[in-house]
Design brief:
The protein has helices at about 10-20, 35-40, 50-60, 70-75, 100-110, 125-140, 160-165, 175-185, 200-230, 235-245, 265-275, 285-305, 335-345, 355-365, 375, 390-395, 395-405, 420-425, 445-450; strands spanning about 1-5, 25-30, 65, 80, 115-120, 145-150, 170, 195-200, 315-320, 350, 370, 380-385, 410, 425-430. The longest helix is centred in the middle third of the chain and has 32 residues, at about 200-230. By secondary structure, the protein is α/β, with parallel strands linked by helices.
């Protein structure tokens, strides 16, 4: 079975490589000639664990190819997937569908046989209907079906999410489209993955409804964390107690500095705009967006409070800049709010991230970037953990104590050991946990600095 994947961004590249791993013949196409050249040379333009090996293996097997020529890619394809970006449209919060309709227009122009055009991009309800009308108007001579197959890939675990998903959602309007998608995902029958066939509008809405619900879950536990700080409770234990209830579940109940990334921020906004258009307001989602934006600014106050109310003239070591670990994605990351705010308050920010620094250098001017966590900790008045990369969870706090000038830790992911931190003389501030302070907060001795 031959398929084409229009777009080699995060969704398109991961999906194309995974379909090839299923045994399909896949051609990925992108207008960016430089990106295609890099992919042909074996260079992966995004960081996703396991993706480089997956692409290389399927290219070598002859199941995965890359081109800039749409006509070449779609020749003989039983399904043409559109996996281009749908960013937030500037000024009004709607999803910008420019790239989706540009891709569809090019497909219509170059297509020479009947096929199924499948939207894998996240698109508002009604987009499939509009695409169908456009394609039929442009190519009345061809039987072009339209379907929806939204993605549910988490950055950092996208390959596993594709190969072992909770479910696959397919919005179809004909038996032919249903058959094509059923055959594309046939390998998942071996692990009894539920494949849900719906109409197109329902499939489109499932994607937005899912992300908005998860965003609400994250935001709810973040607000609970604030209450825990007021009453002396521990949000991690509260979340554990909640998550053991099978009706709720444990996932997405981790308090932190607010959600970010490429999905939750834009998808919640796009869903709100759709709800407004149909005069069916979603007040919970609206509040979620507002609370999450305020959450990032609240973290700045938390850092200031930990340093006595001011960061003026202080050197702050920030560990982690991406919106989550195991990705190089900086989109809507809390660091893009927290770091500039600290700088505006007069702080000197030194930062390190295992994968995000190339993009961070462009987005965060004035930051001093280090080659590793301990380099940025040297001489710091405070350690602020913003992203819980695995290597930060195992941070040697004794070494950090010897390197730092100050004795303040602000752990915005609750990833460090507060007991150990206090034993070493740190004042520890987490999220949704009581502030912990040692009996005496002292500075590192000259001997300690020498040992490091």
């Amino acid at each position: 079975m031959h398929i084409a994947m229009i777009g080699t961004g995060y969704v398109g590249l991961v999906s194309g490589a995974c379909f090839a791993e299923f045994g399909l013949d896949v051609t990925c196409v992108d207008r960016d000639a430089d990106k295609i050249a890099r992919l042909r040379a074996g260079e992966i333009p995004i960081y996703e664990p396991g993706l480089e090996d997956l692409v290389a293996r399927n290219v070598e097997a002859g199941r995965l190819r890359f081109t800039t020529d749409v006509g070449e890619a779609i020749e003989g394809a039983e399904a043409v997937f559109i996996a281009v970006g749908t960013p937030t449209r500037r000024g009004d919060g709607h999803a910008d569908l420019t790239y989706v309709f540009d891709a569809a227009a090019e497909i219509a122009e170059r297509l020479r046989h009947p096929t199924v055009v499948v939207t894998k991009s996240t698109v508002p309800v009604g987009t499939g209907r509009r695409l169908r009308a456009m394609l039929r108007a442009r190519r009345p001579d061809l039987d072009i079906e339209v379907a929806s197959n939204p993605e549910f890939l988490r950055e950092g675990s996208a390959i596993d999410d594709f190969m072992r998903p909770d479910r696959v959602v397919c919005g179809v309007e004909s038996e032919r489209a249903r058959d094509v998608l059923a055959r594309a995902y046939r390998p998942l029958n071996l692990i009894e993955t539920p494949i849900l066939f719906t109409d197109i509008e329902t499939a489109e809405l499932i994607k937005y409804a899912t992300n908005a619900f998860l965003a609400m879950k994250v935001t709810y536990v973040n607000e609970l964390a604030d209450l825990c700080e007021k009453v002396g409770a521990d949000v991690q234990q509260v979340a554990k107690g909640m998550g053991l209830d099978r009706r709720i579940g444990r996932r997405f109940l981790h308090a932190g500095p607010g959600y970010g990334g490429s999905c939750f921020p834009k998808d919640t906004l796009a869903l709100l705009r759709t709800a407004e258009e149909y005069d069916s307001p979603l007040r919970l989602v609206e509040t979620t967006v507002q609370v999450n934006e305020a959450r990032k600014r609240r973290m700045v106050k938390k850092i200031k409070d930990a340093l006595g109310g001011s960061v003026e003239g202080r050197r702050i070591a920030v560990l982690g800049l991406t919106f989550k670990p195991n990705t190089d994605d900086m989109r809507e990351s809390p660091s893009l709010v927290v770091v500039p705010a600290l700088q505006a308050e007069g702080a000197e920010v030194h930062a390190y991230d295992p994968k995000g620094m190339p993009e961070a250098r462009r987005l965060l001017p004035g930051v001093v970037f280090g080659e590793g966590p301990y380099q940025v900790l040297e001489g710091a008045d405070a350690l602020v953990l913003l992203t819980e990369w695995p290597e930060f969870r195992g941070l040697d706090l004794a070494r950090a104590r010897a390197l730092m000038r100050g004795r303040v830790i602000v752990d915005l992911r609750n990833a460090l050991d507060p007991v150990r931190a206090v034993e070493l003389g740190f004042a520890y501030t987490g999220v949704g946990r009581p502030v912990r302070r040692p009996a005496v907060v002292d500075a590192p001795s000259d001997d300690e600095r020498e040992r490091v």
